[in-house]
Each structure stands twice: as C-alpha cells, then as structure tokens.
Design brief:
CATH topology of the largest domain: Jelly Rolls
CATH superfamily of the largest domain: Jelly Rolls
Helix content: 40-55%
Strand order of the largest sheet: 1-2-9-4-7-10
Structural class: alpha+beta
Number of helices: 10
Order of helices and strands: EEEEEEEEEHEHHHHHHHHH
Strand content: 15-25%
Shape: globular
Largest sheet: 6 strands, antiparallel
CATH architecture of the largest domain: Sandwich
Number of strands: 10
Number of domains: 2
Length: about 250
C-alpha cells in the first residue's frame, strides 16, 4: 500500500530498509499496486482486502502478504489499526512463496501485539529485530514450496536453531557452513537480513520471550535455556532488547 492512500500513518520507523507503519483505514475502497512486498498485520479491527484474484480479511488472527506488483483493493469499517511493513528487496524472497493471507495462531498474534507495543513505546531497535524474526517465523511456518536458497546458510541457520543456548563463534559457524567468516557474514545477511550473531541473539531473545509468556519457569532457568548462566547479564540484555526487564514483562503480559 503506497503512502498516497488516505490511511492515517500513526507512527513510522525506517530501520535498515524496513519501513514499519502503524495505520488505520477509511471505509471507502481504494485500489493500487506497488513495486515492493508488503506485510499487513492486525492490531485492532478488520480490513477487507482483494489481492489480485484472492479475497480475504485482515483481522485478529489473520495477516496479509501483498506481493510486489499485485493489484489490491482495501477498505475498513469502524475503528481499526494495523501494522504495515514495506519489505526491502533483500528480504522479499522470504515472502514470495507464502500465500496472500496467513493464519496467525495465538502465539504469533501475541507476538504481533508485542511488536505493536514496541512501536508505540518507540523501542526502535527492538521493533526492527522483532519484525525480521517474525518474517523468519512466517517463512518457516507457511512456506511449503521450495525456494532457491544457499544450503550453506541454511546449514548455519539450522545449527544456530539447535544450539542457540551454547557459545557460538563466527569461526565455528563458518566452519560448519564451509565458508570463511567473511563469506558467511555477507551471505547470511543477504539471505536473512541479519548477521549470524544478530540471528543468534534474536533466537535467544525470542525463545526467552516465548518461555516468559507461556510458562511459569523461573527466570534463572529461562536464562540458562537461552545461553545465559549469569542472570544479571540476561536481564540486562532482555531489557535492552525489549525495553523492560524479564520480570516486568512477565507481570504485564500474563
């Protein structure tokens, strides 16, 4: 959705190519296309959409992916608010094989709501990284068709996914991927939008976020599970990442 439509841009953040807007929409139907991919996620209300030949609705548990060049119509009734992310070219291929409308389960829906809270709180670093990881999660969950990808990067990524609680160095990951550390860093960022160490941190923080929200495990146990033996170091990292301590997060999101 281009910026020329009459939706109200309530908050905007431009972070390393990712454009994240918080918008609301009017009842009159608009139609257009643009040359970049776009992700539309629900905060409140619902948005009726027609993306090429596929009709659907963005609401509490469903988001939309608008492919570059796709003609789409949209309108909304009543009070509404949506996260709208313009996806840079280097990340677009992660969305190309996904359906126009994607179901958000309770966990993903809550993750979107927390991303919204970070935007309204102007936690800019956190919202960028959370959106990058959300794109990764959506791609892993809904992409059932094979897409061209460097298998060496997939190998490194899968290793991080299975060993994120361990101390992982750039040299170790490069050896696993059969690449030099420099090649790994360049290719990994091209394919995922993050460096290997950024992805490792996001994996740890997302797992900690999930465990804090969905379990009653002590914070120290959760810290251990995501690679932090020192509780103070974990709490400091979590606070820098999400703008609040693990205990404060748990108390206000349960």
């Amino acid at each position: 959705m281009s910026k020329s439509h009459q939706a109200t841009a309530l908050a905007t953040s431009a972070l390393t190519g990712l454009q994240i807007n918080l918008r609301s929409y009017a009842s009159d139907t608009k139609s257009h296309s643009h040359d970049y991919h776009q992700l539309v996620l629900p905060v409140s209300g619902h948005l009726d959409m027609q993306i090429d030949n596929t009709g659907g609705q963005v609401d509490t548990y469903q988001g939309a992916i608008i492919a570059a060049g796709a003609v789409h119509e949209f309108s909304a009734e009543g009070s509404n608010r949506f996260l709208v992310a313009d996806i840079p070219q280097q990340l677009a291929r992660q969305l190309e094989q996904l359906p126009a409308f994607i179901e958000l389960d309770a966990s993903l829906s809550h993750y979107v709501q927390f991303l919204h809270s970070q935007i309204t709180a102007k936690q800019h670093t956190s919202q960028q990284q959370m959106l990058l990881l959300l794109i990764q999660l959506l791609n892993e969950r809904f992409n059932t068709r094979s897409t061209p990808a460097d298998t060496r990067i997939d190998t490194a990524k899968q290793y991080i996914d299975s060993h994120y609680a361990e101390r992982l160095s750039a040299n170790q990951l490069a050896l696993i991927a059969n690449l030099s550390p420099r090649q790994l860093g360049q290719l990994f960022k091209s394919q995922t939008g993050m460096t290997p160490q950024q992805y490792l941190l996001e994996k740890r923080m997302q797992t900690a976020w999930f465990l804090l929200h969905n379990t009653d495990q002590p914070v120290q146990i959760i810290a251990d599970k995501v690679g932090y033996q020192n509780l103070a170091a974990f709490s400091d990292r979590f606070r820098k990442h999400f703008g609040q301590s693990p205990r404060h997060f748990r108390q206000h999101t349960k």
